[in-house]
User: What shape does this take?
Amino acid sequence: MVNKLIFANLAHRPLRTFLSVLAIGVEVTMILTLVGVSYGTLDASARRARGIGADIFVRPPGTSVMSLSSAGMSEKTTPILAARPGVALATGTMVQGIGGFDTIQGVDFPAINQMAGGFKFLEGGPFQGDDDVMVDQYYAKQKKIHPGDHITLANHDWRLSGVYEGGKLARILVPMATLQRITGNEGKISAIYLKLDNPEQADAYATKLRSDLPGYQIYTIEEFTAGLSVNSVTMLKDFIYVVIGIASIVGFIVVFMAMYTAVLERTREIGILKAVGAGTGYILNMLFRETIMLALIGTTFGILMTYGTQWLMSHAVPASLVQETVYQWWWRAALIAITGALVGTIVPAARAVKQDATEALSYE
Assistant: This one.
């Protein structure tokens, strides 16, 4: 009987029901999209780092895993490390930020190509000149560019020489000497990647290297990629919680208004129920069930909408944002939405159970 009343009430006021479901759905979508983008973008960076084929990652003193500093150590450090016993190959790179999380990486292409096991080109090929640039398939898709086109990056005109398969180091690669020259960092690099003769000795080798190079930030590639996670980036976690809080407040307000309006509209109906013997528990049960139904439908709608945002990002900004489906956050988003909806129903429900049956029956 209660369920029939609930469905009848929801169907009787379709616009209010739709707006409530939409608001809760947007709340859930905001949460899942932000979490998905955070996980996806960092995981994509980690996959590109692993795709280089290196075993050890070396950064200059005073930097961190997430630092985007352009050039902090001498490129002469690279041959010194390459000459150490147990090192099969060493190559340096230079990172230059170009806004947001986007960067250009200057590389010694023959060395990085050898370390990565060869770049697979989908269009064009490697650098042919000092002002050439290579991009991965996602950046080329987002910018709609092809070999031979000219693009401006870091206030410099580049000619696109090739588009390579994603998953190798970075989305934009340029000759390191050129990037050093146009940024005023001649002879400077940002990081060094080492490939060992025996990758299984990476942990022990990194420990030994830390003692030999005090102050330098030295990680195995597994340690480095583990640092590229939401749990390791405190500022990002805080940002996620702030957005979740805002989304929850929005959902709470919308559900509160919807349920408060519903109680006002059903004053006479509640009076009739009380007149025929319905108690406080029955009224509360009906209102809270209706709220939970709205929250569940809204949550389902929100989850479905995240696939829409995922599709949109993969087609509109594939090189800037990567959204993953983070399944473990589905139940969390659902719990947040349901809790917020129930809290938003407390005041309207309290008003409903306090209504005098005689006054309610005379309500027009």
